[in-house]
Write a structure and sequence with these properties.
alpha/beta
């Protein structure tokens, strides 16, 4: 599940050129009790798994208030334990399609629902240079393209059944007239709402407003999940339902961005909080979003173990606490260089975030737990601040699971992802894929030379 709240940790490195990257976790990781897990792979090609990848894939950042420092004892899921999981759904010829669905209509009697997806930012925290505008919502066909590459070669289709919001009751809600100064203004109590197909509907509970006041009304995640289960096609390996409205799960949540019920083969995500125009509100540091999140200066600054989960000043940093830079991998350096040359627009950034969360939640449908081995798309996330720092790729442990499930070739899959990145102008992912493919080619030559 991807459950988020606003994080109090902000970057204190406001003017940074990311001169040095590091593959290491922050020093705070040790203070919090997180210890990197060593993966013991199923013996296959005679290569030591960890030796092969330790100089390519960065460790989890494990910064203050990150998921791994809040839950440092989260158990690792090895490839062997994933393979032995009896509850994991296998891809079969009868169930091998990933479906995407999204409500495309709003019935007239509940036409006010459209306004619920628009955030109220007029009185929220914004920088002096940031003016609120509405980038276009991510196109579901673009999400299909990304997931087709991510889970290659499984087919990814848009669900053919039309979905729409409608009223749960058959008669309109009564009109109430308030007293006093507001007597002249009539106010209509919204009808209970539902999501429907052409033949059935599921009631969706709501909460107004969101606890942080950003969205006027939220939808209940559990009810949306029930609807997704109801519309699951018979040939589906999994179904992902994407909504543009903000979600909540229970009274303790401020908001929830996604959830997967792997056993039921369904997942739901909301695009609402990924709107880049809300980044200031959620303390998202775009300067140190992936791949710049592995900037050594940034990690040294935020990851000070004496900070008690608070950012600290570079002026007061003891030199003895500084994290020494480590050897930087070719893929990470390539990703950063391409990212700095071609930073994503707000429209692309919203799409990227939607795609990353979509891939993550569908990963749970493939039986993948949250990753604790490396920085990885399957890591858990405790805030939108942390979410922006995480990579879009699968680490080698999680990739081995997905490749086993989909029967894909690693380099073919990477090539498909690079094609998407090139087509979108997503420099960071393109650079990462190019770097990984170059490393793979070098390793092949080294093996050929030794033999």
């Amino acid at each position: 599940m991807t459950t988020f709240s606003s994080s109090s940790v902000e970057s204190t490195v406001k003017d940074c050129h990311h001169a040095t990257l590091t593959l290491k976790s922050s020093l705070y990781a040790t203070e919090a009790g997180y210890k990197a897990s060593v993966h013991k792979p199923v013996p296959t090609k005679g290569e030591e798994f960890n030796d092969r990848y330790k100089s390519i894939y960065p460790a989890p950042l494990a910064l203050p208030s990150d998921e791994l420092t809040l839950d440092p004892k989260c158990p690792p899921q090895s490839v062997r334990s994933w393979q032995r999981d009896k509850d994991r759904n296998a891809v079969t010829p009868q169930r091998n399609v990933i479906y995407l669905a999204t409500p495309t209509g709003i019935d007239k009697e509940v036409d006010y629902i459209g306004s619920w997806a628009r955030p109220n930012v007029s009185q929220q925290k914004q920088t002096t240079t940031s003016k609120y505008s509405t980038p276009p919502l991510p196109d579901i066909q673009d999400v299909v393209s990304y997931l087709s590459a991510f889970y290659h070669p499984l087919p990814v289709n848009i669900c053919a059944v039309p979905l729409a919001f409608t009223s749960w009751v058959d008669t309109p809600a009564p009109t109430k007239v308030s007293s006093g100064k507001e007597r002249k203004r009539k106010r209509t109590t919204p009808n209970p709402i539902a999501l429907r197909t052409e033949s059935s509907k599921t009631q969706i509970r709501t909460r107004s407003p969101s606890p942080d006041g950003i969205f006027p009304t939220q939808l209940n995640l559990n009810d949306v999940i029930d609807f997704a289960i109801d519309i699951l096609p018979t040939d589906a390996y999994a179904l992902l339902l994407i909504v543009s409205h903000d979600l909540f799960e229970d009274d303790d949540d401020v908001f929830v961005c996604g959830r997967a019920y792997g056993g039921s083969r369904v997942a739901v995500i909301s695009t609402a909080r990924y709107n880049p125009d809300l980044d200031d509100i959620h303390n998202v540091d775009r300067l140190h979003a992936w791949p710049a999140s592995h900037c050594a200066e940034y990690i040294n600054t935020i990851g000070n173990p004496t900070s008690s989960l608070q950012p600290w000043s570079r002026k007061s940093r003891p030199k003895s606490q500084s994290q020494s830079p480590s050897f930087t991998s070719l893929p990470l350096q390539s990703a950063l260089s391409s990212h700095l040359e071609r930073p994503p627009s707000s429209t692309l950034l919203w799409l990227i975030r939607t795609c990353q969360t979509s891939a993550h939640e569908l990963g749970h449908c493939f039986g993948l737990d949250h990753c604790v081995y490396y920085a990885c798309c399957m890591q858990g996330s405790a805030s939108l601040t942390e979410d922006a720092r995480q990579p879009p790729y699968l680490c080698p442990v999680c990739a081995e699971k997905v490749l086993s499930a989909t029967r894909a070739e690693s380099e073919t899959r990477m090539g498909k992802l690079m094609e998407v990145a090139v087509g979108w102008g997503w420099g960071a992912l393109q650079g990462w894929c190019e770097g990984v493919l170059k490393v793979a080619e070098r390793q092949k030559k080294d093996v050929g030379t030794k033999s």
